[in-house]
Each structure stands twice: as C-alpha cells, then as structure tokens.
C-alpha cells in the first residue's frame, strides 16, 4: 500500500468509527443542553441497546432472517424500547433531582450507570455473546482502499439519523420548544410549553440514538458484552466536549473528528499503537486550553 | 482431611482387591499423590488424582512393578502453600517411594524443599512456573512445558509455513506482553523481521485503524498473544481490511468463543493449546477408560498426570530397585518415554526437553489438530 492509500483507508476507518461516536455523543449533548446533566448512564444505554437488539433479532430472525431486514426491524423496535427506558430513568431518577444541586444529579447518573451495567452482567454471567448476523464481507475496492457494504450502510444510517435529528430540532415546533427550554426553562413554562413533556421527548430521542449505535456496533463488530458501553461512553463524552457540549452539530463534528484523530493517531510513524490515545487526548487538552467551549460551543453568560 | 483419608482408604481397598486376585504378589509400593482435593482448585486436583489412580490400576493389572503392587496415598495441598507443606510432610513421613502431582505452582514451590531434603523422587505433572526450576534440588522432574514454551511451538509453525515477516499484537497485560516480547526476541534472534509490534486496549471494539496499519506493513503472519474476546474482534477486522495471510493466536485465545464471535473470519486461524485429550491421538484409549472408570470427561491435566505415574513406573523398572537415588537417576536418564501426551525426556534442569503445546487450526467453526 502506498502512503496515499494508507491515508485514504484511515480516512474511511476514521469516518466509520467517528459516526458511532457522533451518534452516542448526540445523546450526551442533547441531555446536557436541556437539563445541564452529564448523563453518565448514556454509555450503558448504548450497551442496553445492543443487548435489546440482540434479543429482538433472535426472536424475530425466524420470520425475517438475520440479514438487513431483520436488523432494521430489531433496530426500530429496540430504539423505541430503549428510548422508553431512557424516559423511565429520567422520570424515576432524574426528575426528582432537578431542583437539587448539580452534583447530586451527577452522582445519580453514575448510580444509574452501575445499576444498568451490573444488571446485564448478572444476567449474562459477564460472558461475551456472539452477535452473529448474515452481513458478509463483500465490499467495494477503490484502488487499494477497501470498504465493505456493511460499513457504507452503517455510515449512511448514522448520517440519516443525524440529518433527521437536525431537521427535527430546527424545523418542527417540538424542536423549537427544545431549543427554547435549553435557553430558559421558566420562561418556557410561562409561554405554555409543557416542559416535562419536552424533557421526556429529549431523553427518548437521545437514548434511542444511543440504542441505534449500540445495535449497529453489536452487529458490525459481532460481539456484545456488559462493559461495552464504558469505553465508548468516555469517548463519546470526549467527542461532545470537543464539539462544544450542548451543541447538536458540535456533537456530530466532534464525533467525526475524534474518530479521525484516533485512526490517524495509529499511523504515526515509529511509535506504535500504544500512543494512539495519548495522541488524541493530547489534542483534546490543547483544544480545550485554547477554546474551552469546544469548536461550536457558545460561551455561557452567567448572571449574578 | 476427611476426604483424603477416605480417598486413600478407597485406594487401599482397591489394592486389597487386587491382592486377593493375585496371590503371588506380596509387597506393596507406596506412591504419594499431591494434588488439591479441596478448595477452589479441587475439580482439577481430583481429575489429576483420578488419572494417576487409573494409571496405577493399569500397572497393577499388568503385574505391578517388579512384582510389587502400587498403593497410592493422597496428600491434599488445597492449592495453598501452607497446606501443601503439611501434605508433603505427611507423604514423606509415610515413607512413600515417590510422589506424582503438583497442580498450583505456588503450592508446589515450598514442597520442593521437603521432598528435596528427604530425597524423594517427585514427578511434577502440571505446575509449570519457571520459579520451580531454581528451587529444585535435583529430585523433581517437570513433565509439563512452561508457558513460554509455546513460543517454540509458534516459531516452529511460522518457520514451517515459510513466514519471513511477522506482526505481533498483545494487550499490555503481563501474560500477553511477555509472550509477545519473547516471540519478538526469538524471531529477530533468528535474523528474521518483526514488521509490527502493536498493542490493543482492553475492551476497545474498533481495530480498523490497527488493521490498516498492519496491512500496510504486509506481514506473512500475525501472532495475537492475548485473549479470545478481543482477539475475535481483531481477527475479524484484519480479515475485513483485506489481510489474507496466516493468523495464529496464543493459548489465552484457546476457546470455542473465539470461533463463535469471529465467525467465518476465524476459519483457518492457528491456535496453541495444552495437551488435552481432545487433541491427543494417543490418548483415545485413556479417554475411554477414564470415562468408564469415573463417569466424567477427563480435564486439562489428566493426560499429563497419567503420563507422570506411567513414567515413574517406567523409571523404577529401569532402576531395578526402589532405592530413591536409583529412581532419580533413572528419571533423569529417561531417553524416549512415549506418553499419551507425547514423548518425555528432560533437560539438565529436569524440565521437559520439548514444548508439549499442540497446534490447532479452526475448521468449520471448530478447533481441530493441525497437521
């Protein structure tokens, strides 16, 4: 492979990885935008999404098969189910804490994260499960750069979800209400917006996006595990911060950027893959030193 | 303690039955078995005890050793250094002619002094820490390969497959990094090239960037030294990235789960494994006899334990006496003992002269013996 081929292949790798990060980062950023909560349980909802998709697929694969049709059905069903779980968590664990200090709700989120991952651990005995689908290895070859159809479909699906979200937030009344609440909750109440309903809707959308990413990752990588949400949760949080937490286009941009940083970080000559995380997180620190709000974040004005 | 008493009385009863059957035999030959029969490793220990007893029974049926009947006596080391010391003292004061066993290296280690001081021949069937080598006073013999002997088996495979450029991937933990490092040293020591030496974070799912990096170095073979769960993902993504050459994995990945998670991508992958009955052609009869006698499948170290007892009997026969020095001399001089887990002969340090790792290959979603 020539250097040009390697750089192009790593571009493709980075975009695929980045679109997973972006999908998960969107949930972080939406929840933060609307109730200023860093939802640390978000990575675990991604994991629950993967398990839910696995369960649904094994139930319906007899009828629709375990190829694209089956995967799409299980994805839609699990997005709804896990989305509702997200709303439930918000109602039980976060709603009563909204008036409490920010630290209390943050710790509640950590507790939710542990409850979710340890429950799945108890159910699965901590075993890795094989998420076997019938997607195959076929793909297109552009010179020396190889991309499978699965990868293309996954990136396209992620892009469609992100565009749909963008349109929803910016072109519908619900989206307008969401944006309004993130600016001033009390004023929204006075304007007759049902704030609790919109917060629930935000959780539903954010969580179902994480679930979608979970199913896509589970079927793409081929194995699921109760701890799979941890690393990606951290990375997606990082992506959200890079893009500017609270900003939806920022999360998309941050996810893609982190994916690219990681795949190019692997390729730095002379040093091995050990240094790839040092590279990408080093850039994160530099970015935050010079632009603490992230790429698309806005400086918050605190009124005293 | 109760259990081991029970076991030894069962052993005595068995021997008694043989005595009744074969009137001519007069003397008994007492052989000690040191394994954990209680505690966390009890399953493995009892499995070893079964295999040793099975071997003793077969030897007795064939006329014993020089007319003597083998009587076994079990000391329970409980996989604990203190308990092991007590068990060894018990066996030594019962004046056993020799000892077979040793499962947990940590428990076997302090007993080497006790057996050494009493000059009791000790065939170590499973424990394989390299620390045992230094504590050995010359009377103990290790018939299991040390973990890193698999480097030799791996290199043999790569050489046989005409590999020139090797890529090694590990996970940064003690076990997989040591194995990777040792393989790299040996391989470059042979004047061949290690084109990539990479590490993968535990729990990371996406390895496509690594796959591209490795593919760009065009290795003839890739050696994954870590565990199956992440290994399956790495292999899958290497194949997805268009890598078509040889892939081998260490014994940490010796699991059917690797093939289940990796699916079609793992077809043709090589793997190194301890000599378990499933992969030993010579162990067929042993497998059947074991199942018949104990109504269960033999576990990982049953073949080696069986070989240990048979080797001891062979050495006593060659020594022509039950004198301890003579037995130790005969053990050290073992030339070509054909065990069910392969031939046994010893290095100057009394360790197994060859690597007893077997090479497996994935075929139709199952591990089979490679040839």
Plain-language structure description:
- The complex is a heterodimer of chains A (304) and B (371).
- Chain A has 304 residues and is mostly helical.
- Chain A has a domain at 20-229.
- Chain A is 73% helix and 4% strand.
- Chain A has helices at residues 3-35, 42-64, 68-94, 102-124, 149-171, 173-183, 185-190, 195-221, 228-243, 248-266, 276-290, and strands at residues 129-130, 139-142, 145-148, 223-224.
- A two-stranded antiparallel sheet of chain A has the order 1-4. Chain A has a two-stranded antiparallel sheet with strand order 2-3.
- In chain A, helix 2 (42-64) crosses helix 8 (195-221).
- Chain A is globular.
- Chain B is α/β, with parallel strands linked by helices and 371 residues long.
- Helix content of chain B is 45%, strand content 18%.
- Chain B is built from 13 helices and 14 strands.
- In chain B, helix 10 links the parallel strand 9 (246-249) and strand 10.
- In chain B, helix 8 (208-216) crosses helix 9 (228-240) and helix 12 crosses helix 13.
- The longest helix of chain B has 20 residues, at 2-21.
- The model of chain B is unreliable at 19-25 (pLDDT under 50).
- Classes of the chains: A mainly alpha (304), B alpha/beta (371).
- The A-B interface holds A 1, 5-6, 9-10, 13-14, 16-17, 20, 127-128, 130, 132, 137, 146, 148, 217, 221-223, 225, 227-228, 230-232, 262-267, 272-274, 276-277 and B 172, 196-201, 203-206, 208-213, 215-216, 218, 229, 232-233, 236-237, 239-242, 257, 260-265.
